[in-house]
Amino acid sequence: MLISRQKRSYAMRLQQGSVLIEAMVALVIFSMGVLALVGLQSAMIKNSSDNRYRAEAQLIAQTHIANMMAFGGDAANYITQVDKSKIRSQLPNGTLTFSALTNTMVTVTVGWQVPGGTRHQVNASSYLFDVMP
Question: I need a surface site. Which of 2, 23, 27, 68 has the fewest CB within 10 A?
């Protein structure tokens, strides 16, 4: 009886601290999972804002093309009247350029660059026709 009690006592001493080690390992694994989720969340936020800027740039380009269509054959006059400085309030470091590829085709290019990021741009092209009333 004394021998079995000594064996049990020795076995218990060998097991001391094992629960603490298991808990620490579980905590490290859990912490790595949380860090991975935080990294994923930050990447999703960055991509979301990139997509927002792209959608805003596309809307600006399409709006200017629609306005030129409304001006009819006087698109060149519209281009000179556009306030290109407004785009800086809509997009970070925003730029707006117009280029006429032919007499009836125009391309609107909207560019932007977030601080510390790469430059992006969206092009929209359309044919402009002078519709007779």
Answer: 2
Residues 90-130: tens digit of each pLDDT? 888 898 988 876 667 888 999 999 888 889 999 998 887 76
Rounded to 10 degrees, what is the CA torsion of 13, 18, 21, 26?
-170
How long, in residues, is the chain?
133
Residue 132 within any structural domain of the chain: no
Whole-model pTM: value is: 0.65
Whether 106 is covered by a domain: the verdict is yes
**Which residue type sits at 58?**
Q
Q: Which domain holds residue 63?
A: 2-127
The two three-digit tokens of residue 2, written as one number: 């004394």
Per-position DSSP letters for the chain, written without gaps between them: -HHHHHHHHHHHHHHTTHHHHHHHHHHHHHHHHHHHHHHHHHHHHHHHHHHHHHHHHHHHHHHHHHHHHHHTT-HHHHHHH--GGGHHHHSTT-EEEEEESSSSEEEEEEEEE-TTS-EEEEEEEEE------
Cα–chain center distance at 7: 64
